Amino acid sequence: MAETPAHVPKSRRDRPAKAPLSREAIVQTGLDLLDGGGLANLSLRKIATVLDTGSASLYVYVQNLHHLHALMLDKALGEIAAPVTDQAPLERVKWVLESYLRILLARKGLAQIAATTMPEGENWMRLNEILLDGLLEAGVLPERAAWGIDLLLLQMTATAAEKSAWGEQGDVIGRTERTYAVAAEEAYPRLHQLHDLIFDGPGPRRLAWFVEALLGGIAHTPLPAKPTAKEPGRAASQA
Fold it and tell me: Distances in Å between the alpha carbon of 8 and those of 4, 5, 15?
């Protein structure tokens, strides 16, 4: 009987064909890595390894890691639940904000990405469109609605980032409450006076009040006067 060689070279043609590289594949792989281990598990090098390609090949489709974050966030926002059409305008706004918050909390690290990244794409624009539509239908003046959506999304994003971070830090609220409880009353009389109220109420109840307070403020707070030519605009001041 003829001996079987210990090693028989195989042609590369025997390998399964790789799926073609695309921006969609890169973004989805990034989200999969995020699901698997959060931001610490996400890098262009790891994405390239999963896709069986070199890191340099990714730059044909994404500019850098920050650009990838923006694309990943926008893709995730495609999961936002459409508001019920017969809801009152402000109820639609609340519905979409709650959906946005749930999406940020569904993936470990996505809230942190949202806190430092400006998304780009159809889903981000659709989210803004729904919010603007609800505010305008509710009678909010256009200039207040235009600024108001920024305030609402900042609140939801900050809430998600906070909750996500606290999930990794243990009983943050309990530690803070105990610190307040033993603080010197003469130095912090108001903290002692309002201690029970400060820590009263579950998260959903507080969040509902936050949104109501923001909506009321947006509807009734006039914009400041436009800056003079010598004062910086939003882009320059990052206001």
Answer: 9, 6, 14
Count of the separate structural domains present in the chain: 1
What pLDDT, in 10s, does the model give residues 150-201? Answer: 999 999 999 999 888 877 777 778 888 888 888 899 999 998 898 888 888 7
User: Do you know the residue count of the chain?
Assistant: 239
Contact 131, 57 (CB under 8 A): no
Query: Does 124 reside within a domain?
Result: yes
Give dist(CA 148, CA 203) in Å, integer.
Answer: 22
Whole-structure pTM value:
0.82
DSSP codes of every residue in 63-104: SSHHHHHHHHHHHHGGGPPPPPTTS-HHHHHHHHHHHHHHHH
* Residue 237 belongs to some domain of the structure: no
Boundaries of domain holding 206: 82-221
| pLDDT at residue 3, rounded to an integer | 52
What CATH number has the domain bearing residue 107?
1.10.357.10
